[in-house]
């Protein structure tokens, strides 16, 4: 049922066909079936970090986790990340179904972790939605579905975080960080780098997401400054 909200009938039919063709898809669906539906959050705050690649999510989530003695999780969750490269090479709809399913599996981990400590998350539903929306159209941000369109709504059966912070840096600084990091790029990241319109569509989609909306954080400052800003926002919005 959880997957029904993120996949249309056609896509579900396709994913069962694809389960026959890709063994990993069968394993993924099995894992998803085992996740209880409509997971509830525990008593500790759940804070998500979003943003384009190299905006500093990994850096800041690690520091926030250390400062708050929290639990750090990511989407897609570690238990399915070994299948990621398989799905990244599949057609767009199958690839997105993998990430969407990953969010529901992650929700079970969040539910459990948030009974123990503050939960810090590197990407969640907003990533899946923003990258999907930005991929479905071409050209300028004017071509995106209008603000308030239902594509910008959080799925009603997916555990909601308390706070979502969207890290943004100017394009030149982002490229400098990408180069300094020097990691192997995924196909999509390489495309992002050359395709500034795509990047603008991703960021604009992030900004249109509602319920919960993303709170934007200028992450161009030093690591220490960014951490300070983020910790202030967390203490303002969440009871620690
Ligand atoms: N505030 C910052 N100022 C300068 N460099 C940063 C800052 N935050 C992160 N970086 C560097 O930028 C690169 C990308 O950061 P990372 O945390 O991996 O981003 P993401 O997880 O969003 O892809 C890394 O090399 C990191 O050390
Ligand atoms: N919840 C998620 C997480 C990632 N993704 C996809 O994964 C890509 C980024 O993942 P990544 O591991 O390279 O992110 P960074 O660690 O580089 O920030 C995005 O381009 C999305 O296509 C998604 O669709 N949904």
UniProtKB/TrEMBL annotation:
GO CC terms of this entry: mitochondrion
HAMAP family membership: Thymidylate_kinase
Catalytic activity: CMP + ATP = CDP + ADP; dTMP + ATP = dTDP + ADP; dCMP + ATP = dCDP + ADP
Localization terms from the record: Mitochondrion
Domain Thymidylate kinase-like: 49-228
Species assigned in the record: Falco tinnunculus (Common kestrel)
One of the GO biological process terms: dTTP biosynthetic process
EC number per UniProt: 2.7.4.14, 2.7.4.9
PANTHER family given in the database record: THYMIDYLATE KINASE, UMP-CMP KINASE 2, MITOCHONDRIAL
Protein name, entry field: UMP-CMP kinase 2, mitochondrial
Similarity annotation: Belongs to the thymidylate kinase family.
Primary subcellular site in the record, as a coarse category: mitochondrion
GO terms for MF: ATP binding; dTMP kinase activity; nucleoside diphosphate kinase activity; nucleoside monophosphate kinase activity
One of the Pfam families matching this protein, by short name: Thymidylate_kin
Keywords per UniProt: ATP-binding, Coiled coil, Kinase, Mitochondrion, Nucleotide biosynthesis, Nucleotide-binding, Pyrimidine biosynthesis, Transferase, Transit peptide
Enzyme class: transferase
Transferase listed as a keyword: yes
The organism's place on the tree of life at top rank: Eukaryota
Keyword hit for Oxidoreductase: no
């Amino acid at each position: 049922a959880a997957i029904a909200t993120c996949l249309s009938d056609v896509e579900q039919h396709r994913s069962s066909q694809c389960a026959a063709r890709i063994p990993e898809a069968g394993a993924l669906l099995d894992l998803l079936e085992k996740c209880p539906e409509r997971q509830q959050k525990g008593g500790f705050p759940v804070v998500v970090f979003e943003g384009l690649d190299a905006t500093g999510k990994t850096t800041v989530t690690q520091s926030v986790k250390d400062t708050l003695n929290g639990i750090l999780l990511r989407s897609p969750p570690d238990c399915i990340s070994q299948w990621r490269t398989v799905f990244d090479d599949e057609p767009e709809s199958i690839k997105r179904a993998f990430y969407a399913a990953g969010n529901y599996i992650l929700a079970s981990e969040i539910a459990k972790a948030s009974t123990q400590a503050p939960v810090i998350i590197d990407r969640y539903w907003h990533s899946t939605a923003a990258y999907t929306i930005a991929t479905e159209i071409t050209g300028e941000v004017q071509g995106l579905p209008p603000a308030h369109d239902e594509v910008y709504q959080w799925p009603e059966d997916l555990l909601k975080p308390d706070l979502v912070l969207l890290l943004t840096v100017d394009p030149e600084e982002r490229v400098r960080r990408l180069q300094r990091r020097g990691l192997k790029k995924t196909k999509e990241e390489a495309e992002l780098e050359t395709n500034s319109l795509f990047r603008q569509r991703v960021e604009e989609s992030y900004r249109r997401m509602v319920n919960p909306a993303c709170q934007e954080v200028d992450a161009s400052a030093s690591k220490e400054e960014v951490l300070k800003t983020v910790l202030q926002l967390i203490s303002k919005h969440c009871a620690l």
